[in-house]
Write a structure and sequence with these properties.
- By secondary structure, this protein is mainly alpha-helical.
- It has one domain.
- Helix content is 66%, strand content 0%.
- The protein is globular.
- The N and C termini lie far apart (68 Å).
Amino acid sequence: MTEQTTEQQEKSYRELHRPASEFDTRSDYLDHELQIMKPRRFGLNLPGRDFNFEWEDLVPAIAGTIGIIAMYSAVMMSWAEGLTQAWDHIQLGKEFAIEVSRVEMLLPALFFCVIASGFVNPRANLAGNHGPMIPLIGAIALAGAHPLALAILLGVFGLLLSYFKGGSRLVNLTGNGVAGGLLVFLGFSGAMSQIGNIQNWATGIVPDGGAAGDMGYVGLVVLAAVIVLYALLARLGKRWLAIPACATAGLVIALALGAGFDLKFETEMGLPNLNPVYWWGSTTEGWMLGLPNLQHFLASLPFAILAVAMWSPDFLGHRIFQELNYPKGTEKVLMDVDDTMTMCSIRQMVGTALGGGNITSSWGTYMIPAAIAKRPIPGGAILLGLLTMTVAILGSPMDVAVWPPVMRVALLVGVFLPLLEAGVQMIQDEKDAQAAGICVFAAAVTNPVLAWALTMLLDNNGLIGDKNRPSKLSKLDRIIIPASVLIICFAAMLAVGMLESKWGIPALL
């Protein structure tokens, strides 16, 4: 056994590779592929020499593509609605959201899916979408934040955390109760928002010769079918299929019930505007915001802190999912949390500077099906990048992706229900329940950012939750870091008037 292990360590992937026909089962072949891979970290990894393409790579590639189209579209629609509401001179709608989504799906997909995770560092998971931040985008826009300022801050914080290996520290600072409460609040509020949006869409349909409200039942039927399908997938252990299966079901059911005339194919084949100056150069083109100023950075600061703080549990969860599905002896192909954080940080700044608006995190809708399909990162990453770029150029699939019974359903089953479930699972006992309850209450009174900072400070000092938790933490982790985060968040919110709507405190700047 020792000689065999030594032989595997010395020989290359190409030398150890054996055809699938030599194995008893397909699963055995896939296990062997994972065990013999030796990915080069920040080197050149080539198909055939360092990895192979398998048909199983299509599973995460297709699931990730559907998920990211819906999520990118939802992010950009949220930015469009929030900025239009926040600024008098801005009018942004569906056309803007689709064009910005196409920008995000072209160059960033090429650089960070195909090149970065496919060829340069297959241990870095793809940089995708930060699902938990989607319900906050409206609040971010109303707070006076700027997408480019948010991206710069988020990227800088992420690079610093990656350099100092700070991911595990942030995981320890946010206890299970606080994290669970935050996820429950975001998941529940987001799910209710998507359900309401589906119903508003259905009741707003005006059929030929009919009136608004005549087709309100369409939304109810779509939601009922999605609930049954999602429950069935969960029962069968196939929740990784939730996004493509439920989104397709929403599309088919809505068309079958006669809502198809509401689906408009308006996006033409071609390329979006890839000139960053168009998107950020003035207040009359692109985002219509111009370049960010100091107030924009102050307004973006608390949200950037929260986004990066929520990265670590997200990244670690994806790695653990690999560990649960991969066989023994596959440590070399598991995603590296710090490398993934580095790639996400760079992708956040580069993608937004090119004109995008995505808030980046580890790509869960890719990693979860990839882990279940027993595939490493690179093959599926390359296929996903190519699929995403193809869809962006074709254009018309984007119109389908932003149609409410597709986009809202994908967000519901791909982001908010998993968030809600994960939050409930993290609440394991009475102590966690207490911390989670206070976090949810604080989020309802203020907002999720301030609630997270406040309850983290209280939890780490034993004032809520586990009374023995302070003894496990250093003074730095217990007081200095949580208190500093709370002060920074509160000061930034106070400065930009984020507390005015609920507390009546006007902006100081």
